[in-house]
Amino acid sequence: MKEIRSFVKSASLSELEKAKQLIDTAIEKYTQQQEAKKEVLDLLKEKGLTLEDLQDVVTTDKRTKVKPKYRIEFNGEIVEWTGRGKRPKAFQGVDLTKHLA
């Protein structure tokens, strides 16, 4: 608030009018957002839903699973690697062209 007071004291008329327009726009936008939130919450209540019900629908994993590019048997286990990230110990010092999946 101190910054606003000092601005008001030192600003010209045109600067004050521009600041008033910005404040009026911000207040109008805030009011519209609050009304929209109220409408959505009223609609949810009307339909018998909660915000938690919507969160289950919204949270989806958009990452796609990458198929393994390399496969090798290491210590009796099959180890697969996509070729991304740090090279696993099973593939250290190995010619990868011989172990394509």
From TrEMBL:
Chain ranges of the DNA-binding protein H-NS-like C-terminal domain: 60-101
Protein name listed in UniProt: H-NS histone family protein
UniProt keywords, alphabetically: Coiled coil
Lineage of the species this protein comes from: Bacteria, Pseudomonadati, Pseudomonadota, Gammaproteobacteria, Alteromonadales
Residue ranges that the Swiss-Prot or TrEMBL entry lists as coiled coil: 13-47
Entry keyword Cell division: no
Extent of the signal sequence: none
Molecular-function GO terms, alphabetical: DNA binding
Entries under Gene3D superfamilies matching the protein: Histone-like protein H-NS, C-terminal domain
